[in-house]
């Protein structure tokens, strides 16, 4: 009699890559809205009379609820308790609600001109409120998708899969950077790109519903032994996570590195206009090259990590490149568009190296049943930077960098020195992480494929 060996659905290559494609698409839609306003900064200033500080406040709202209301941490606990289907679906709904509120605030329907809410212009406050709700949704969707990828790819092409997910999501950033201004100009409305995002988010929600069916099938294919191996999450596990030094080094590296990239992207278009004298209508194209480069390189470096290891070293190289690039943006040399383009591409390489090694390293430090909470805690620490740094840069620009006359509106030297500082600190933490790996034997320098 032949005994049938039960295979998990994730053992099928086709099934696991299909699951990845579906959830990665949902993230693409989320990243589109995250960055859609960045190239619109000059239009917000000229048409809606926002200042750099208004823009900085609005941008920092992304992290308000995640950081102060601990929404990300609750989201991680809900994820580990209730599972990926429930959490992911509700995260998509939050993204839609947040986007809807933000659209209302920026659109012509908005009718509270002249009003002040908590010291902010009503329009800025309501757009920020919507963005804050969206921020909760997209961040919880992000940790859910990380956990989904571990569920399907652990012991297989984990870093490649995470790299491909990030690459797909960055298509959303790239679209935001390159199409927002032409789209807004075509429809003669700053809010038109946000409406487009709303439609995309509806499609992203449908994609996640498709994933829910795939996840049900995966669970049905698990044997009793697989299910027994899954230890339930207990609240006291949080203590185990936060007393782990490796966890804190990853979280610190994450906040420092990402503080020098995502908030930089929010101002990159404005930097191109002010420092490199690029036409505002085309200025978003140069920053859009950053995510473009990561499309190919994040999966490439992820694959390298899967097969050859060297995760900690990859993070160190990425941090060094980040410092070099921001320093070149800060220095008063070669204020030409082609030079900005070259260094933006190099930043894209750095932005592929660190994430491709950092996120797949977390499951080497933290057990799978605590992963949702661990990713949530890392994102929570990161959100302090995503929230604080854009507000800081907006304030610094208004206070110290304003220029008089008909030329550029701002001198970007000081903001770029601040970004360089984050790079230096990220490098120090990456070196400490490599030393800790040597001491504790996490296996960060070892390949992921067993
Ligand atoms: C995977 C990682 N995601 C994040 O860092 C999110 N917390 C922030 C998403 C912000 C989107 N512009 C990444 O994208 O590298």
UniProtKB/TrEMBL annotation:
<dbReference type="Pfam" id="PF07690">
    <property type="entry name" value="MFS_1"/>
</dbReference>
<feature type="transmembrane region" description="Helical">
    <location>
        <begin position="125"/>
        <end position="146"/>
    </location>
</feature>
<feature type="transmembrane region" description="Helical">
    <location>
        <begin position="246"/>
        <end position="265"/>
    </location>
</feature>
<feature type="transmembrane region" description="Helical">
    <location>
        <begin position="14"/>
        <end position="33"/>
    </location>
</feature>
<comment type="function">
    <text>Lysosomal dipeptide uniporter that selectively exports lysine, arginine or histidine-containing dipeptides with a net positive charge from the lysosome lumen into the cytosol. Could play a role in a specific type of protein O-glycosylation indirectly regulating macrophages migration and tissue invasion. Also essential for liver homeostasis.</text>
</comment>
<comment type="similarity">
    <text>Belongs to the major facilitator superfamily.</text>
</comment>
<keyword id="KW-1133">Transmembrane helix</keyword>
<feature type="domain" description="Major facilitator superfamily (MFS) profile">
    <location>
        <begin position="19"/>
        <end position="438"/>
    </location>
</feature>
<keyword id="KW-0458">Lysosome</keyword>
<dbReference type="InterPro" id="IPR052187">
    <property type="entry name" value="MFSD1"/>
</dbReference>
<feature type="transmembrane region" description="Helical">
    <location>
        <begin position="312"/>
        <end position="331"/>
    </location>
</feature>
<feature type="transmembrane region" description="Helical">
    <location>
        <begin position="190"/>
        <end position="213"/>
    </location>
</feature>
<feature type="transmembrane region" description="Helical">
    <location>
        <begin position="86"/>
        <end position="105"/>
    </location>
</feature>
<keyword id="KW-0472">Membrane</keyword>
<feature type="transmembrane region" description="Helical">
    <location>
        <begin position="337"/>
        <end position="362"/>
    </location>
</feature>
<feature type="transmembrane region" description="Helical">
    <location>
        <begin position="285"/>
        <end position="305"/>
    </location>
</feature>
<dbReference type="GO" id="GO:0022857">
    <property type="term" value="F:transmembrane transporter activity"/>
</dbReference>
<keyword id="KW-0812">Transmembrane</keyword>
<comment type="subunit">
    <text>Homodimer. Interacts with lysosomal protein GLMP (via lumenal domain); the interaction starts while both proteins are still in the endoplasmic reticulum and is required for stabilization of MFSD1 in lysosomes but has no direct effect on its targeting to lysosomes or transporter activity.</text>
</comment>
<dbReference type="InterPro" id="IPR036259">
    <property type="entry name" value="MFS_trans_sf"/>
</dbReference>
<keyword id="KW-0813">Transport</keyword>
<dbReference type="InterPro" id="IPR020846">
    <property type="entry name" value="MFS_dom"/>
</dbReference>
<dbReference type="GO" id="GO:0005765">
    <property type="term" value="C:lysosomal membrane"/>
</dbReference>
<feature type="transmembrane region" description="Helical">
    <location>
        <begin position="412"/>
        <end position="433"/>
    </location>
</feature>
<protein>
    <recommendedName>
        <fullName>Lysosomal dipeptide transporter MFSD1</fullName>
    </recommendedName>
</protein>
<dbReference type="InterPro" id="IPR011701">
    <property type="entry name" value="MFS"/>
</dbReference>
<feature type="transmembrane region" description="Helical">
    <location>
        <begin position="55"/>
        <end position="79"/>
    </location>
</feature>
<feature type="transmembrane region" description="Helical">
    <location>
        <begin position="158"/>
        <end position="184"/>
    </location>
</feature>
<feature type="transmembrane region" description="Helical">
    <location>
        <begin position="374"/>
        <end position="397"/>
    </location>
</feature>
């Amino acid at each position: 009699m032949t005994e049938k060996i039960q295979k998990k659905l994730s053992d099928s290559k086709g099934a696991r890559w299909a699951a990845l494609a579906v959830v990665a698409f949902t993230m693409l839609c989320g990243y589109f809205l995250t960055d859609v306003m960045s190239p619109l900064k000059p239009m917000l200033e000229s048409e809606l009379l926002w200042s750099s500080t208004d823009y900085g406040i609005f941008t920092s709202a992304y992290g308000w609820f995640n950081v102060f209301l601990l929404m990300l941490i609750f989201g991680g606990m809900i994820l580990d308790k209730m599972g990926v289907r429930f959490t992911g679906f509700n995260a998509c709904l939050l993204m839609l609600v947040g986007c809807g509120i933000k659209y209302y605030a920026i659109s012509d329907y908005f009718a509270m001109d002249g009003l002040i809410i908590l010291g902010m212009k009503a329009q800025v406050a309501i757009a920020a409120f919507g963005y804050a709700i969206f921020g909760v949704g997209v961040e919880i969707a992000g940790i859910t998708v990380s956990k989904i990828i571990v569920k399907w790819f652990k012991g297989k092409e984990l870093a490649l899969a995470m790299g491909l997910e990030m690459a797909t999501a960055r298509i959303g950033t790239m679209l935001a950077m390159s199409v927002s201004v032409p789209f807004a100009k075509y429809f003669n409305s700053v809010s038109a790109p946000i409406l487009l995002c709303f439609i995309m988010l509806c499609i992203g929600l449908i994609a996640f519903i498709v994933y829910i069916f795939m996840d049900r099938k995966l669970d049905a294919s698990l044997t009793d032994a697989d299910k027994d191996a899954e230890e339930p999450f207990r609240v006291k596990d949080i203590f185990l996570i936060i007393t782990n030094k490796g966890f804190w080094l990853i979280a610190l590296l994450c906040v420092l590195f990402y503080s020098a990239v995502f908030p930089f992207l929010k101002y990159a278009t404005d930097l191109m206009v002010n420092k490199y004298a690029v036409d505002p209508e085309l200025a978003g194209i140069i920053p859009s090259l950053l995510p473009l480069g990561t499309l190919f390189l994040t999966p490439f470096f992820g694959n390298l990590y899967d097969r050859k290891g060297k995760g900690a070293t990859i993070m160190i190289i990425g941090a060094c490149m980040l410092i070099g690039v921001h320093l070149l943006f800060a220095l008063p040399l070669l204020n030409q568009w082609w030079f900005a383009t070259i260094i933006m591409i190099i930043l894209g390489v750095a932005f592929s190296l660190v994430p491709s090694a950092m996120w797949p390293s977390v499951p080497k430090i933290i057990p799978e049943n605590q992963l949702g909470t661990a990713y949530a805690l890392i994102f929570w620490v990161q959100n302090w930077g995503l929230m604080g740094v854009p507000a800081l840069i907006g304030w610094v620009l208004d206070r110290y960098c304003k220029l008089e006359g008909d030329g550029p509106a701002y001198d970007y030297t000081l903001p770029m020195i601040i970004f360089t500082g984050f790079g230096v600190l990220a490098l120090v933490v990456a070196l400490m992480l490599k030393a800790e790996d040597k001491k504790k034997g996490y296996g960060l320098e070892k390949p992921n494929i067993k």
